[in-house]
Every structure is written in structure tokens, then in C-alpha cells.
Design goal:
Layout (H helix, E strand, L loop, with lengths): L3 E3 L2 E3 L2 H17 L4 H9 L3 H7 L5 H15 L22 H11 L4 H11 L5 H10 L2 H8 L9 H14 L6 H6 L3 H9 L5 H7 L11 H13 L13 H26 L1 H9 L3 H10 L3 H14 L6 H5 L2 H11 L5 H14 L3 H9 L2 H6 L7 H14 L3 H9 L3 H6 L6 H14 L6 H19 L5 H11 L2 H36 L10 H9 L32 H5 L1
Antiparallel strand pairs: 1-2
Length: 569
Amino acid sequence: MLARVVNQAIKQPAPVVAMRAATRCIAQLARTDSKDLKMRFVESGLVKPLCILTRSKDEDTRRTAATGLLWLCQTPGSTKDKWSRRIEPTDLEWETEHILMLVEAAESDDPAVTTQLWLGLRCLCTHQTIHVILNRTNLFDILATSLRGDRFKDHFTLLMAALLFIASLAETPWPPHVLESRAYLPMLEALARLLPRTEVEVRSMQSAKGVMSTWSEATLARCAAVVMANPDATMSDVNESYQQSFRQLQCYVLISDVVVLLESLMLQMKEIREGLFHMGAAQPLINIHLHSKYRMPKLTCLRALCLMAGSEALARYVSSSPKYLDILDFALRNKESMSLVKTAMISIKEISKDSSSIERITQRRLVSALGLLAKTTDPTMQTNLLETFANLSRKKAAKEQIVHIPEWPNVVAFADSFDPNVRREVQRLLCTMASGDWSEVCREALTVIIPELKRLQRSGRFDPQVVQTVIDFVNNADQIIKAQALIRGVLGRKRAARVRRAKLAQRESLRRLPTFREKPHSAAMIALEMFVPPTVVRDTAQDPEPASVPGISSAPQPAQEMSPAAARL
């Protein structure tokens, strides 16, 4: 039915009016702050009619239905506004069917409907719910549509609601098969397109007209906080009288939210870092950092750049870019933001896992920049720093630079930490330095700390095997063992040669000497020897036998027995 114009006013047909009234009634029922009543509402089956009404041709009906779904999703009794940056997930047990209905209803041509549903769905973002949504819906395609750049001018609230919902999704890692399918790439591309890509676009974001041109950065931050807390805010809410200037303020808020969101996604999932890097998101961040006149966007973009590089898969791309390494060096030496320093150190840690990138890191003198962080008292930061040094120590040039930094005594002092993780990483670092290519510089540095390591070993806070490894390295045990083996081999071969020569000489002497009957060894043989005189075998060459006389036998004559008389004579 078509509406009729009566007295210059639009009069809706009765069915439309009744539908509007019914929709308001259902929405008011969903607005209750009682958990029991909301559960009864969900169990009654009224969720489905509300989702269907969001597709009504009547604008008032579909927007009222969307608002009712938002009220239903909010935590019962919550006092937080729908635009709150932090929101507690509801404790209501939603059925999977109803959650899928809400996601399907968000795919609407009306930006106001989609805005309300994004704000409502983020109240349902638990670990289990996120997995259900990502596995069974085309959520990323719907989000990519909501983030279209052409909707920025007219639907700023839709963009902010979508960013808040994605921020809720980023609080938990996504399922591995979702990351492997790379279904999130359209959404990432839409986010990257919101960033200014040229210097001209960055400078157009800066305030140039109206009251905003006179604002300091503190005033700008305060006004931006008003827009962030309520994207529906008008120009009068921030005391701005120029529409273009107010649009620049909205752009400032939007870009800040996009950069923070990208940082949150990259913190949770390394695959997001790789996707953003390969689609060229680094250049817009560099442009904002270089050409923005505000300090906070500069630091935020620099932190996102450092985090984007923190992936072992991207190590070769990043290390081959001197400009990117200079950015990391600058971030490590920054004294204004400790979060920026921590992010840069995490990136270097991930890059150092790739052996081929260690040489480029040492050439850019990033080791000295890392050494500046050795004065920290934060155990987490100490652990990351020691792990980075351990990765770099696989190369000779890197570990020589480590022991040369002025903060090397501070690194050694970490061995006496009360944190077991810190002590574990110190032991790993020492083992890595005491292995690999020989370095006299490392040997001298490790020699000094051996007494301290022995003291820690006696107290039971250091692994004895690690201490022995360091001692063996200092004593050059490997070289000594090799030298001993070499010497033993040479001496063994000489001794074997002498034994062989002695045996040959003995054989030669035995061949030349006369042969005697072997002396008896047993008692019986000795007794027989007393009665049988030994027979001497003459050497024919030295003592020839006498010539035989004809007629006389040469056989031995038997001994004649002597008479007693002869014996007396």
C-alpha cells in the first residue's frame, strides 16, 4: 500500500501503522534490564520476527527493530553506553540459530540498521561465539561492505560501529582454518583503504579552517575524545562552526581508530601482519608518521609499523630494506613512548629468528640500540631482550658486538634474577655464545663472569651443565681435545713403527744365532734332564765335525765300569 498525502502530511496505511506499533512493543519488551525476562524473550521466539522486520520497506519499522535487537544483546543491567570503547559480553546463553540470524540481518542496505546490529553483536563476542560466527557466516564480506570508503561522508557512525565490532573480534585469536583460508583479506583491504595514501591526503586531514585551526594538540585530543565517545555528536558539541573543519575532526578520529585497530589485529595474529605488509599498508602509515603535525598519530603509526615487521616470514623483506631497519632503530632509541620501544624490540626478536637476516641487523648497528634497553627492570622486557640476543649470537659478528656494548654487565646481572624465565634466557644466551664459531673476544668476556656463574651454581639457581659449557669454551676444551687426539695419533703411529722394527730385528738375530734345545719347564722334564745330558747342536760353519778315520767307528763308546781297586788308585 502506498501512503496518502492528507493536508500536506503523509498518512500511512493502517497495516503500516499497526506494524510500527507492534515493532515498538516488541522492542520495548527487549529493553528490559532483567536477565530472566531477556531469557524468556529469547526463548519465546521473538528474535526471528525482529530480524525479519529489519528488512521491512518501512524505514521507521526496520530501524525500530534494529534498535530492539541492540537492546536485547546488551548486558542486563549494564550502565555503559552503546558507544563505550570497552563493553562486557552478555552472560545470556544465545542459541547458534539466533546469532546467525543477527549476522544475516546486519547485511542490510540501511546503514542505520547495520550500525545498530554491529553495536549489538559486539556484546555477544565471546570466544565460542566468535568461532561460530567466523565458521558459519560471510561476516568478512559484510564488514568489507560496511567499510566502503564512499560511505565515509554520510555514514560516519556506521564506520565507527564496524571498527568497534572488529575490535571485539580482535580480542581473541581466530581459528587456524579461517586464517589459512585468507577470507579476512577483503576486510583488511577495506581497512587499509581508509588510510591516507599520499602526502596531500595527510595534509588535508589537518585543521586549516574555523576554530579548529587555533587548537593545540591537547585541545584537539579533548575534542576528538568527545567524538570517539559519541560518533553521533554534532558540531555544536565540540564548539565548531565550520562543516569542513568538523569533517577533518571526524577524519582524525577515524584514522586514529583504524591504526589502533590494525595494531590490535597484528598483536593477536601474525598472519594479519603478513597480509597488511604484502598489500602495501606500510606506506600509508609512513606517510602519516612523516607528514602529520600531531605527535600522537606519529607515535601510533610508528608503533604499527614496527609491529607489522615482527614476523619471521617477513624477515627477509624487512631486513633487505635499509629504511625499514632505520625505522626500527629510531623506535628502539625513542624515549617518549615505552610501548613503542617494546614493540620495536618484539619485531627485532621475530626478525632475528631468520639466520640470513642477522648479518644485515648487525650491519645497521641495531645491537647497540638494543643494548640501551638492558637497564630495564621489567622481567618481560628482559626476557624478550635476552631472547633477541640469543638469536643474534648464532653469528660471530653479532655476539662480538653484544659483548662490546657498554651495557654488557647489566646483561650478565640478569643471571641473578628472581624470575625463572629471565634466568632461563640468560643460560640460553651463554650457551649460544659458547658455541658456534670461535671468538677470542667472547672468550675474554666469558672468562670474567665464570666466578659469578660458579657462585650461582652453588646456590642452585644456575644449571651446572651451562656453567661447564662456558668453562670448556673458555679453556678452549675443543681445541685441546683435538690437539690431544692429534698428538696421540702421531705418537701411536711412531710407537707402532718402533714395535715393528724391534720385531724385525729380533727375527733377524734369532736367525743368525745357534739354536739350543729349549729348557724344560716342568719338574718331570727337569728330572729327566739330570740323567740325560743335553745335546749340543753344532754350527757347521763355526765348529765342523772331525773327519772320520777308516776302520774306527765314530759312534760313542759305552762307559766302562771301574773296579774298586782302580777307584782307590
